[in-house]
Amino acid sequence: MPSERNALAGAGISAADEVVLRALLGRGQANAVEVAAATGLSPQRVADALDQLRRQGLVARFAAEPERYAAADPRVALDALLHPAERSLRRARDAAAELAAIYETVRTGEAVTGPVEVVTGEEIGRTFLRLQQSAVREVRAFDRPPYVHAAGNPVEPAVLARGVRWRAIYHPDALEQPGALAEVRSLAALGEQARVSVDVPFKMHLVDERVALVPLEPSPNGTTRSMLVYASVLLDALTFVFDVSWDRAVPLEAGASADELSAEDRQLLALLAAGVKDETIGRQLGLSVRTMRRRVRRLLDLLGTQTRFQAGMEAIRRGWIPTDGAGGS
What we know:
Strand content: 15-25%
Helix content: 40-55%
Radius of gyration: 22 Å
Number of strands: 13
Number of helices: 13
């Protein structure tokens, strides 16, 4: 690849990866074979490039067969890969452009955007990525199926690495996805604060109490319309709903515990208290039906309870699964 094409070398992006990124930006959404045809690179080289770009938060993979990809807004995605001094300069330039746009809007008498904006189709995925990448202080998330993107969130680790607080409340159905619990655990190790509740009302990502993305019409094949909610009474209401749900949700990882409990026992109790189905717990923890029943029976006897839900509630009462102050405030 000609070196002059490697304009993104300063952000740690190779020449070939940049070619793939440019091709994907030009197509909106494509699979590896389509990108390979557009670039002249081999399908395997394109697949490797897409995986690398996805890890860097520049590309999203959608839940489709064959796998399809879309580029994130490069202005936001590249910001996280730049040197801090360059990021500051870039943000100043972006702010200047935003101020100029406001000036032109007012000067020409055009209507200013209201508190709600509807996004549709492929733009939802790009907006979802851009929204997360713009986080400065905190992301609040309601998580439940169905999903537009494939399992996993390649953007979140990069956002957490910048010191952004991330709180997520998962519906038990979200943990039924293959590998979901392991994914949540890995994110928790990076700093995500995770809780579980059967009362997750809808999917939502709320960033910095500044803007929220909420699906309008979820369907088994994803979402065809979502709304961006900006500063308004509605955004205040969404913030309130999340905060109330957070206080009532069960932390996925237990805190203080009895000496006779293993880490897996504490995880099992947290899932029982959250109302997660036995089949899902066994699958996520890698337990057979027989082992699962034996472990649950032991916990019931240990706690002096008759049902799985009672065991979870009693564990909370004893402080083995904290309900207040998990993850700080």
